[in-house]
Amino acid sequence: MPLPSVLEQVQRESRARLYPSLRNPNWLILRRRRQIFEAGLSRLPRHGLSVLDIGGRLQPYRSLLGARTKSYVAVDLQMTPLVNVGGAAEALPFRDEQFDFVMCTQVFEYLPDPGLAVAEIKRVLRKGGVLFLSAPSVFLRENDKECWRFLPEGLRHLLREFETVEVTPEGNSLTGFFRTCNVFLASFFRPRILAPLWEWTLVPFLNLAGYLVERIAGDNDQFTVNYSVGARK
């Protein structure tokens, strides 16, 4: 069987992020993020959108925009077959007020100065344009390039020059607890040869348990592990 192409690998990873398997330790928040994004689409025009995807090497949410998109540009430092422009969020190579909608998911934690990125996003957005952002508040450090974790008030402060800012928890405190258990155990499970057993048993169990009991915590978001943000210029 031939090996999948780079494009096929990227597309597979993109779909796995949009529609995660129960065997994915991040299933609880990825599922919730998609729901938040879909709900936010109702506030966007139904056609003619110029879209910028910052950190768009995978573009998992592009398909949800459907016929709303007139143009779609992806910028990232890491090039994939889906990326149009190589560039940094803090120095976007685009003219002022070029886009109607900007997406920036799970990027800000890597930026030494996220305030610069916010200023650039505001610059390239048209008046009335919308930003969809997501950022972690609790997660294991995956590599040495990570700089930050974000809480609601910190996100509101970063986006204080936007007209409206709505911060939405990607699940409540129980969601955060079960997801954190899943990620922690999946990261440190030894020996690695037994990882498939864990992936097919305990990971789905913890995901389903978190899904079933999250209503107990209600709106408590003291241990929410990720936030989605919608902001209008």
Sheet with most strands:
7 strands, mixed
Q: Assign a percent range to the helix content.
A: 25-40%
Measured by DSSP, the beta-strand proportion falls in 15-25%
Query: Multimeric state of these chains?
Result: single chain
Widest beta sheet: strand line-up: 3-2-1-4-5-7-6
Order of helices and strands: HHEHEEEHEHEHHHE
What would you call the shape?
globular
The end-to-end span amounts to 50 Å
Query: Total strand count, please?
Result: 7
Q: Spans of 5+ residues with little confidence (pLDDT < 50)? A: none
Total count of helical runs of at least 4 residues: 8
What value does the average pLDDT take?
Answer: 94
Judged by helices, strands and strand pairing, the structural class is alpha/beta
**Computed CA radius of gyration, to the nearest angstrom:** 18 Å
Verbal overview:
- It is a single chain.
- The protein has 233 residues and is an alpha/beta fold.
- 36% of the residues lie in helices and 21% in strands.
- Helix 6 packs antiparallel against helix 8.
- The longest helix has 16 residues.
- The protein is globular, with a radius of gyration of 18 Å.
What are the defining features of this structure?
233 residues, alpha/beta, seven-stranded mixed sheet, 8 helices, 21% strand, globular
In short:
The protein has helices at residues 6-18, 27-41, 62-65, 114-124, 152-158, 173-188, 195-200, 202-213, and strands spanning 49-54, 69-76, 85-86, 99-105, 125-136, 164-169, 226-232. It is of the alpha/beta class and 233 residues long.
